[in-house]
Design brief:
This protein folds into four domains: 187 residues, Heat Shock Protein 90 (2-Layer Sandwich); 92 residues, Ribosomal Protein S5, domain 2; 120 residues, no CATH class; 133 residues, Four Helix Bundle (Hemerythrin (Met), subunit A), CATH 1.20.120. Helix 8 packs across helix 9 and helix 14 crosses helix 17. It is 36% helix and 26% strand. The chain is rod-shaped, with a radius of gyration of 39 Å. Strands 3-6-5-4-7-2-1-8-9 form a nine-stranded mixed sheet, covered by helices on one side. A five-stranded mixed sheet has the order 10-11-14-12-13. The chain is built from 17 helices and 24 strands.
């Protein structure tokens, strides 16, 4: 292949490698910043022609140090052929940034530039040949103007593509960038002022020209930059694969904004090179995430232990922090179990480890902030059912799963802690016989019958308080030596049926309820054989009474 053919092929590849034909705007903005310009103006003009078509003119102008003839000949035009000489060579450097303008397929490109008193104009044709002329008038900075034939109805699409490209790649640049759609007289400033600082949970590393901001926020997002110019953008999985082994559990809510001269792209600008510079930035990200975890825990501990009023605003912030803690629990590990990140309804902070110790029945209840001061909360807490301030969203799958690892169930307060109204008459008599069985079996010290508040969905409950009477239902933990007071719900269908049966076969009715209580205790808490032996003993005693009285 001839030298000319080789250069043609290289030019084609350089142009074709860009993802979008409008990516050349990123390259021109970078060239402007490299030239020291603090401003870049991009404008789209439409010129009418006599043939029914229009000429689109896309102009990019800066106020940086322009080019003198040495730079033009040594860098800008190295890959292009002079219209006069036809000579070109691949020797020396070349400006990939400028080559990218041909991805737009312009019919002509006009470059005007000036430096240290020199001023030049270059006209590039569609076949990549060019003409160079010295300008008599001084020229400051550089102007690149692209011309392309088209139809007027294409203008909105072209304008939108220009705008999108500038926002995608250049919105964080320190220089001022404006896009003017001259046909409709619209001027837009391209600037995102957030710079990754919009998330409340943020950690920052800033040394030299490297700034890395890491945040816990939604949606997860990573943007890698060099001098404010976007190099790569997307999800943590896409751009932080190297640190996935230590950070992947954070990927669900990880936001990274990293700007460093250590980050470099390949010649096509579509891939950040995996080198020592990138690995250094990734190490910074990893360290900042660890610090954010510590900060998250410290904030929650401070909130949970605060003595001030628990307002709606406070709870909203508390819930927000807990949502992020849910993503980090696996990464933090068992050390989190001892940290006081949960708010008790009676006030003060508690840890999961402390909750497990206080949850006598294997149940932790939740109540919304507005009900934290209700008497039922204090009754439950004294009776071995600690109560947390939480709404339905707080008490989601993550907190339930966390407590479930300790065989502790998270429930709503009203679902498991209920007031009781004692029953009289036959209910009390039946309770006495059930008690005789359960006391002998080592299950309870007393059995009572009453009506529970709430739905009649539980046969029995364990007494939390005698004054006022209240019970906990659906216990998950029970020790045989606790000798508790058992209440039966007189409204439950099984208890109602037993009361009817009691008038005919009292021991059968009582035994049915005794087995119903023990059968729903946590597995292994009580041996059913002990209940059967107690029933047999009472049956034998009842059978022997007539003989003793004769």
């Amino acid at each position: 292949m001839s030298d000319a053919a080789t250069v043609d092929e290289l030019l084609r590849r350089l142009v074709d490698q860009f993802e979008s034909p409008y990516d050349f705007l990123r390259e021109l903005v970078q060239n402007s910043m490299d030239a020291g310009s603090d401003r870049v103006d991009v404008a789209l003009y439409v010129h009418e022609t006599t043939g029914g078509e229009v000429v689109f003119e896309l102009e990019c102008t800066d106020a940086g140090a322009g080019m003198d003839e040495a730079i033009i000949d040594g860098e800008l035009t190295r890959l292009f052929a002079s219209s006069k000489s036809g000579d070109r060579t691949m020797a020396g450097g070349f400006g990939v940034g400028f080559v990218s303008v041909f991805a737009w397929e312009p019919h002509a490109v006009l470059v005007q530039t000036g430096r240290q008193g020199q001023a030049w104009e270059l006209l590039f044709h569609a076949d990549r040949t060019f003409e160079k002329h010295a300008l008599a008038e001084p020229f400051e900075g550089t102007s690149v103007r692209l011309f392309r034939l088209g139809r007027l109805e294409q203008r909105p699409q072209i304008a939108a593509a220009i705008r999108d490209s500038l926002w995608r790649w250049c919105r964080y640049c320190a220089c001022d960038i404006e896009f003017t759609d001259a046909h409709v007289g619209r001027v837009e400033r391209i600037k995102d002022e957030s710079n990754g600082t919009e998330d409340p949970l943020t950690a920052v590393h800033q040394v030299g020209d490297t700034t890395v901001r890491v945040a816990f926020g939604i949606p997860p997002h990573v943007v890698l930059l060099r001098r404010g110019l976007v190099l790569a953008e997307g999800s943590p999985t896409q751009h932080l694969a190297r640190v996935a082994p230590v950070l992947s559990t954070s990927f669900e809510h990880l936001r990274v904004w990293a700007d460093s001269s250590a980050l470099r792209t390949d010649i096509g600008r579509d891939h950040v090179i995996d080198d020592v510079g990138r690995r250094g930035v990734e190490q910074i990200v990893s360290e900042l995430v660890v610090g954010l975890r510590d900060d998250l825990i410290a904030r929650l501990e401070g909130m949970a232990s605060a003595s001030g009023p628990w307002t709606v605003e406070v709870h909203a912030n508390y819930g927000y922090l807990h949502a992020h803690l849910a993503c980090e629990r696996d990464s933090i590990g068992s050390a989190l179990d001892k940290r006081g990140v949960l708010r008790r309804a009676i006030g003060g902070a508690t840890s999961v480890a402390a909750l497990v110790r206080r949850a006598s029945w294997g149940v932790v209840a939740t109540v919304v902030p507005a009900r934290a001061g209700e008497p039922q909360v204090a009754v439950a807490d004294r009776g071995g059912v600690p109560v947390l301030i939480a709404d339905r969203e707080d008490a989601g799958a993550w907190l339930r799963a966390w407590l479930d690892t300790f065989d502790v169930e998270l429930v709503e307060l009203d679902a498991n802690v209920r007031a009781v109204t004692a029953a009289a008459g036959d209910g009390a008599t039946l309770a006495g016989l059930v008690a005789a069985i359960l006391v002998k079996a080592g299950v309870a010290s007393e059995v009572c019958v009453g009506s529970f508040d709430g739905p009649a969905d539980q046969v029995w409950g364990l007494q939390l308080s005698a004054d006022p009477p209240s019970v906990v239902v659906g216990v998950r933990r029970f020790a045989a030596d606790q000798r508790v007071v058992v209440w039966l719900d007189a409204r439950h269908v099984l208890v109602r049926a037993a009361m009817i049966e009691y008038t005919v076969r009292p021991l059968v009715a009582a035994a049915t309820l005794a087995f119903a209580v023990v059968g729903t205790l946590p597995r292994g808490a009580i041996d059913l054989d002990d209940v059967a032996d107690a029933v047999d003993e009472l049956a034998a005693s009842a059978a022997s009474r007539p003989a003793e009285g004769s």
